[in-house]
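task queued by scheduler; priority normal; single chain, no ligands, no partner chains; default sampling; output format set to structure tokens
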Amino acid sequence: MTSKEKGLVLPGVSFGLGGVSIGNEFDYVTEDEAQATLSAAWESGIRYFDTAPWYGLGLCERRYGAFLHTKKRSDYVLSSKVGKLLKASPRNKGRQYYPMSPSPNDVVFDYTADGVKRSIEDSLQRMGVDSLDIVFVHDISSDNPWLPTKWEEQFEIARKGAFPTLSKMRAEGMIKHWGLGVNTPEPILRLIETADADVCLLARQYSLIDHQVALDTVFPAARKAGMRFVIGTALNAGFLSGRPRYNYGAESHLIPKEILAKRAALNEAAAKHGVDLRTAAIRFSQAPDLAAALIVGARSADQILADATSTKAKIPPDFWSDLKQQGLIAKHAPVPQDP
């Protein structure tokens, strides 16, 4: 079954919770805080939850499972990722990957068919659920410093192993959708040419700060292939909500001067039009026709409730016109059409 025949159906889940923060990527989050965040997400109407073995090296999946296994499985959409197997060891390097996670695990990259099957089974056991709706092959990308060989070599392993295995699982009804979850465009463009994936997690590639390559290169190719996207990092890891970091990684605090200048200009325009910049960033990343869903991370109940509220806020059309006139967003970028 091809991606065009399959289509992407995510009813009622245009907005979801991403699990990076709940995996202690940026801050120490207690168990009580994590469960309060998940509960607030549910109460706000969120029914899409995205996680990964990588997030806290199992921590996020365990926390998701503690919450979601009490819910009716058909009431929510769940995505996780494959390609990184976790192996517990008393002499593990977990703190090297996630300094704030109490994980006992090491990471083994495995994009083979057997690795995919093992990863999915492990995720289901950690969460205490019986199925995944979406599976993303995780971080086969040039920005991943932990890969054992060049990303192109790992992609070739996945092309022969992970990709056909996931297509078969989708055809058999074991999963509903699959694709890549990556931070750079090249793997997605290569995937479109080599496999029949139907949805990718477009992380760090479509925000008010950075969206030109997605608009001009990735979206046209995806549209021809019948692919859609879950959009991640609308706030650039909190940068557009005022945090002193930009995207992810060990050097996320080393923010380029031109990026700081663009945020300042966006803030000035937002103030001029009486717009909350964080809200504008969320609404902007929801706007493309290829956006099946938008996910944001949150470390607290207050954060996810504010983000959920922002998805329904109206933005004056003059604000978007002003951004385009100043060259702060692409002139052909889709924007929300609020009455």
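post-processing summary
- Residues 271 and 277 are 8 Å apart (CA to CA).
- The two ends are 40 Å apart (CA to CA).
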